[in-house]
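Is this the right way to post C-alpha cells for a design question? Let me know if I should format differently. Anyway, here goes:
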C-alpha cells in the first residue's frame, strides 16, 4: 500500500488498529457520513467523541 500511495490516493477502510498503526498515516474517523475526528491514530483514539460513539463510554 505504501508503494502505491506514493503515486496515487489510497483509501483504506479498516478496523484493525494494529494494521492502521503500522501504516503510520493520517486517520479519518467517520460517523453517519461525516468526519468525526482526523489526525494521528493516537489523537483520534483519544478523542472523547470517538470513544463515545464507538465504545459507548
Amino acid at each position: 500500500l505504501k508503494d502505491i500511495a506514493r503515486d496515487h490516493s489510497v483509501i483504506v477502510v479498516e478496523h484493525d488498529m494494529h494494521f492502521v498503526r503500522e501504516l503510520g498515516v493520517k486517520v479519518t474517523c467517520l460517523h453517519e457520513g461525516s468526519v468525526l475526528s482526523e489526525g494521528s491514530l493516537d489523537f483520534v483514539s483519544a478523542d472523547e467523541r470517538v470513544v463515545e460513539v464507538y465504545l459507548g463510554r
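Format looks fine. Someone answered above. Worth noting: The beta strands are 27-31, 34-39. The chain has a mean pLDDT of 93.
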